[in-house]
Each structure stands twice: as structure tokens, then as C-alpha cells.
Design a protein that fits this description.
The complex is a heterodimer. By secondary structure, chain A is an alpha+beta fold. Chain A has 2 domains: 2-240, P-loop containing nucleotide triphosphate hydrolases (Rossmann fold); 251-360, RNA polymerase II/Efflux pump adaptor protein, barrel-sandwich hybrid domain (OB fold (Dihydrolipoamide Acetyltransferase, E2P)). Chain A has 10 helices and 21 strands. In chain A, strands 7-8-9-3-10-11 form a 6-stranded mixed beta sheet, sandwiched between helices. Chain A has a 5-stranded antiparallel beta sheet with strand order 2-1-4-5-6, covered by helices on one side. The longest helix of chain B is centred in the first third of the chain and has 34 residues, at 39-72. Chain B contains 13 helices and no strands. By secondary structure, chain B is mainly α. The two termini of chain B are 24 Å apart. Chain B has one domain (31-260): MetI-like fold. The chains are: A alpha+beta, B mainly alpha. At the A-B interface, strand 7 and helix 3 of A face helix 8 and helix 9 of B.
């Protein structure tokens, strides 16, 4: 496997530019055989367009898409392989099963469309339905199945023609929470035998955590971060990832252990090993304390800030603070009562330098 | 509901019901079967059924692809083409007949060549009846199918393409089944329209018993000679139309919104 991946190099290579109204998708993404990569990003980041470009449903304006070394889309060279001629399988967000066909005919569709005889196609489809545990439902219509069952049919339908590239567009989005957890596990198991390229589109980091080997963060049409989920979440490089992880992200210039923000605020970090220059720093909201008056003592970070917003979550309150250092502090409702904070109030915020994790841009 | 609206609605219902009641009242029930058995009436009935079946078939053959083009293909002047192809729905049928005459008559712009090259003379022939009926009936099918195609989620077709299905295979196995209720509804509407067609037929094809005299034409003529026969024929046509409406409602329709229902 490793040898083969090394021999063929990267199996799916996308370096594409597509204008989508106000958004321009401009990405370079590579996925190896057997790898499952999750493309994570907020709504409107261009995730689905990336999937449609890979599937051949959306021609790119510039760049190149290649699968196993075969060019699928290269406008400069005049090459465009349409969706029906690509070796792909797609699980769409709302599955898009064929309502007029039975479950079995849905799964057999890709084989029949490629000219496999009816009998052979049905035999293969039956085997796939057994594999996803739905052989008892072969004669039903898709609308007679639950959301989770429909998702499994969609997966079987996409995999039955044995594509080289499997694309999954938010496959769990339409499911309730309990089913979602179960199906994530099941998807992982079903995909174990699949050695093609797998690309999963999601806005939910839990999907990525449950099934993906690697994460690509897509924001505003661009890749902002990639790596394992642990790497990405340990060192957020965008507000989006920071909010996913639930930490404060600060960006500025680092010099001698002090990060100077664009707004002029200064943050002291104990990370003195980091290279000087443009850098990020993260602070957990729980590590920020609030005080009515200027505190005396050890914290080296002490900022007079303005309360912008209060947001209650059970017995915790998230206090959004601003101007010099944009921060969110998480305190208890008891602490809030003691401070009697209202939006617009002045407050002192402190954080230990050891709680400020800095890393270069 | 405010009472003036109820009263006005009731007046409207009576307005529609009264002609039917009048027909039923005046119908020569004892003679009805005898009237239908007269050779002239039987011939008109047979001709009506044959011609309307042909024009429905032609409407399907050309109308479904036309609906697909209007719904799916972007081109300059699409609105104009749609208006052109559905004009005959709002045109007085007589005008349609005159226009067909100008186009396909023996001196018509195309008709003269049909005559010269193939010896084909459409006016005053049974084929002319089919042409006139198709001319007024096909738009009903086109509009019904086009509307269904527009409502159909095109991403389902995308799904078919990612599974290796080409354009024709996708159309045959995915698109067409999805709009089948609308195709059936459109065909039934077109058939009913063809069956009742009068103005374009009598203008373009004339009124020759056994050749171009369809049931509506025979009904009109009977009113001059034998009103009770006209009444029987009218009831027959009403019965057919009513059966079509009821059938559309429950049997074939599924989800298509002809007649303003979901």
C-alpha cells in the first residue's frame, strides 16, 4: 500500500480556481490513495463547489484536476472529463436517491448505467445491501426508509461501481444526533475496505474527528489550514477554527515574548522559543479572570477592557471583551453576580503568561 | 365566510350546473342508444376517437422534447419560442384553422410543396383533422410537462451522472419517471382538448362525414336537423370530459398540479 502510494504519488490532485458569484474558490488539495480527508469549513466557504469540481459537475476556470495521474479537468489544455466518464462515487447531502426506483435498483443503477447486465448488476447490488445491512429492504422505495437507512443506501449506491474517488457531501447533516454517532462508526467500517481516494465535506468537526485521517480547513474559498485534526486544533490560524475549538485567537507581531496586536494591545507569553515576527497566540476563555479593580499580584497580563456582550451557558457565562485585546472570558454566574457586569462596563482582565500559547504565522 | 361571497359562489355553481341539467332534462332517454347506433353518429364517434388518439400520440412525441428544451436549455428568445408554441391555446380556434390553411393548404407556404413533391393534401382530409387537433392540443401537454420539469430537482440528474449515466440514460431512467404523472396528465388534457376541437377542424379540414366530420362537428350539424340527436351527442362529450376530470383527480396524477391542486 505504502509502496503503491509512493509509486503513483498523490492520487487526487486539485489545484483549481473557480469564480462562484462573489466567492472565488482557489485551492490546492492533494489526497493519497486510501486516505480519508475531511474538508472542514463554514457555510458558503466553497466546500460543495470543491466537491462538484472534483465530481465533474462544475468545470473549473483555471488549474488542473487529476486522479491517479489521469487529467480530468485542465481548461488550459482543453481537457474536461464529464461526471459520467469519471470513476467517482458521490454521497450527496440529502442523498438524492431515485424516488421511482427500488432500493435495489438504486444501488444497481451505477452498474446498469455502465453497461453491466441486469442480473449481474442486481447480484452486486444485493451484496452491497447485505454489507450495509439493508438486504431486507431491497424492494422498498427510498421514501419508505429512515434518514439513516437512506444514507446507507446512498453509500452503497456510490460504492457499488467501485469508483477510484469517493466524495461525501455532509453525509451526516440530515440525521439526528443519535443516528449520526452510530453512522459515523458504520461509515468508518464500510470504508475500511475501500482503497481509493476519499474526500468528506463537512462543517462539523466531530465528523472529521470520527472518520478523517486528515483535515483541510476551507474558508472564503481558500485553504487556511491543513493537517491532522489535533494539529489543526492545537494551532488555530483563523477565527473559524478558534471558535470551533472554543479558544481566543490573537494575531500580531511577536518580539521578545510580547505579542503586539494590530489594535495596539500587548500580550505577554511565556513561550520564548517562538521565532519573532508575525505570530498567533491562543488563550482559553477559562484562563481569563475578571476583576472590578486593577489586581495586584503575579499575572503579567492585565488589561483594562470593555464588556461587549454576555452569553449564558448553564452556570457559566461567556463575557466578550473588547477594544485593545479582543477576548472572551468564561466565568461562573456567581462571579458575574459579584462583578455585576453589564455591556459597556469597564473591567480588568488578567491571564497568566503561561496560559498564552504562541506560534508563528 | 361572508354571505355575499356565498351567494355569488352559489350563483356561479348554478350557472355551470344549469346547462347540464337542461341537457339531462331534454335528453330523449329512450332513443339515446338508437341515436348512437345511427351510421353517421357511429362514424363520427369512431373518427373522433382515432383522430384524437393520433393527435395525442403526436403531442407526446414532439411535446415532451419541446417541454424539455423549454425547461432545460438556455437560449436567446426562449420566452418568444414558448409564447409561439402555446399561442394556439389562447387563439380563437378558427384563426388557428385559417393559419393552418395558409401554411399547409394547397396554396400554402409549405402545402404547395407537400402537394407537388408527395401529392400530400392535408386540407379536407382525415390527416388534416389530426393536424388541426394537434395544433390546439399540444400546448396543454407542453406546459404541463415543462412545469413539472422545472419543479424537478436537477441535482437528482447530477447524481445519475456521477453514477456513469449519460444524457439519454438519465433522461429515460431518472427524469422521465419523475415527471411521468405530469406527462400522463398533459396527455389526457391534450386528448380531451383534441376530442372537443371544433373551430380549427371545420376551418382546415371541413365537414365531410366519415372523413373529417368529428363528434363536435356532427353535434353542431345535428342541432340544425335533429336537436334531440345533438343533445345525446353533447351528453356523450360531457360524459367523456367529466370522466377525464375525475380520472385526473384520483388516478394518475400523484403530485402534478394540473387543475390547481397539489
Amino acid at each position: 500500500m505504502a509502496l503503491r502510494a509512493g509509486w503513483y504519488g498523490l492520487s487526487l490532485e486539485i489545484s483549481a480556481r473557480v469564480a462562484l458569484g462573489s466567492l472565488v474558490l482557489d485551492v490546492a488539495v492533494s489526497v493519497r490513495s486510501g486516505e480519508l480527508v475531511a474538508v472542514l469549513g463554514p457555510n458558503g466557504a466553497g466546500k460543495t463547489s470543491l466537491l462538484r469540481a472534483a465530481a465533474g459537475l462544475l468545470p473549473i476556470d483555471a488549474g488542473r484536476i487529476a486522479l491517479d495521474g489521469v487529467v480530468l479537468d485542465d481548461p488550459a489544455a482543453g481537457v474536461f472529463v464529464p461526471a459520467e466518464a469519471r470513476s467517482i462515487g458521490v454521497v450527496f447531502q440529502d442523498y438524492l436517491l431515485f424516488p421511482n426506483l427500488s432500493v435495489l435498483e438504486n444501488v444497481a443503477f451505477g452498474l446498469r448505467a455502465r453497461g453491466v447486465a441486469r442480473y449481474a448488476a442486481r447480484a452486486t447490488a444485493t451484496a452491497w445491501l447485505e454489507r450495509v445491512g439493508l438486504d431486507a429492504y431491497a424492494g422498498r422505495r427510498p421514501r419508505q426508509l429512515s434518514g439513516g437507512q437512506q444514507q446507507r443506501v446512498a453509500l452503497a449506491r456510490a460504492l457499488a461501481p467501485e469508483p477510484r474517488l469517493l466524495l461525501l457531501d455532509e453525509p451526516f447533516a440530515a440525521l439526528d444526533v443519535a443516528t449520526r454517532t452510530e453512522l459515523r462508526r458504520e461509515l468508518r467500517r464500510t470504508l475500511e475496505g475501500f482503497d481509493g481516494v476519499r474526500l468528506l465535506i463537512t462543517h462539523d468537526p466531530l465528523d472529521a474527528a470520527a472518520v478523517a485521517d486528515r483535515v483541510i480547513v476551507l474558508e472564503g474559498g481558500r485553504v487556511t489550514q491543513q493537517g491532522t485534526l489535533a494539529e489543526v486544533t492545537a494551532h488555530p490560524r483563523s477565527r473559524y477554527v478558534a471558535e470551533l475549538v472554543g479558544v481566543n485567537l490573537l494575531h500580531g507581531r511577536l518580539a521578545r515574548g510580547v505579542l503586539t496586536l494590530a489594535g495596539g494591545g500587548q500580550v505577554i507569553t511565556a513561550d520564548t522559543e517562538v521565532d519573532e515576527g508575525a505570530a498567533f497566540a491562543v488563550i482559553r476563555p477559562q484562563a481569563v479572570s475578571l476583576h472590578a479593580s486593577q489586581p495586584h499580584g503575579s499575572p503579567r497580563n492585565c488589561w483594562p477592557l470593555t464588556v461587549l456582550e454576555l452569553d449564558r451557558h448553564g452556570d457559566r457565562v461567556r463575557v466578550r471583551l473588547g477594544e485593545a485585546v479582543p477576548l472572551t472570558a468564561e466565568i461562573t454566574t456567581a462571579a458575574l453576580a459579584e462583578l455585576a457586569l453589564q455591556p459597556g462596563d469597564e473591567v480588568w482582565a488578567t491571564a497568566k503568561a503561561t496560559e498564552v500559547v504562541a506560534y508563528p504565522e | 365566510m361572508p354571505w355575499p361571497a356565498s351567494v355569488l359562489a352559489a350563483v356561479a355553481v348554478v350557472f355551470f350546473a344549469l346547462p347540464l341539467v337542461g341537457l339531462l332534462w331534454r335528453a330523449p332517454w329512450g332513443d339515446a342508444v338508437g341515436v348512437l347506433r345511427t351510421p353517421a353518429v357511429a362514424a363520427a364517434l369512431r373518427l373522433s376517437l382515432v383522430c384524437s388518439a393520433w393527435s395525442t400520440a403526436l403531442s407526446l412525441l414532439f411535446g415532451v422534447p419541446l417541454a424539455w428544451v423549454l425547461a432545460r436549455v438556455q437560449f436567446v428568445g426562449r420566452g418568444l419560442v414558448r409564447a409561439l408554441c402555446t399561442l394556439s391555446m389562447v387563439l380563437p380556434p378558427v384563426v388557428g384553422g385559417v393559419a393552418l390553411f395558409a401554411a399547409l393548404g394547397r396554396r400554402g407556404i409549405v402545402g404547395q410543396w407537400l402537394d407537388a413533391w408527395f401529392g400530400l393534401r392535408l386540407p379536407f382530409s382525415t390527416a388534416g383533422v389530426v393536424v388541426a387537433q394537434t395544433f390546439v392540443a399540444m400546448p396543454f401537454l407542453v406546459l404541463t410537462v415543462e412545469s413539472a420539469l422545472r419543479q424537478h430537482d436537477r441535482r437528482v440528474e447530477d447524481a445519475a451522472r456521477t453514477l456513469g449515466a449519460g444524457g439519454w440514460y438519465t433522461f429515460r431512467r431518472v427524469t422521465l419517471p419523475a415527471v411521468r404523472p405530469a406527462v400522463l396528465a398533459g396527455a389526457v388534457l391534450a386528448w380531451a382538448r383534441a376530442l372537443g376541437e371544433f373551430g380549427a377542424t371545420i376551418t382546415f379540414a371541413g365537414n365531410f362525414p366519415g372523413r373529417t366530420q368529428t363528434l363536435p362537428l356532427a353535434t353542431y350539424l345535428a342541432l340544425e336537423s335533429d336537436p334531440s340527436e345533438a343533445i345525446v351527442l353533447s351528453l356523450l362529450l360531457i360524459g367523456v370530459s367529466f370522466a377525464v376530470l375525475v380520472g385526473l383527480r384520483d388516478r394518475w396524477l400523484g403530485g402534478a398540479d394540473v387543475l390547481g391542486r397539489r
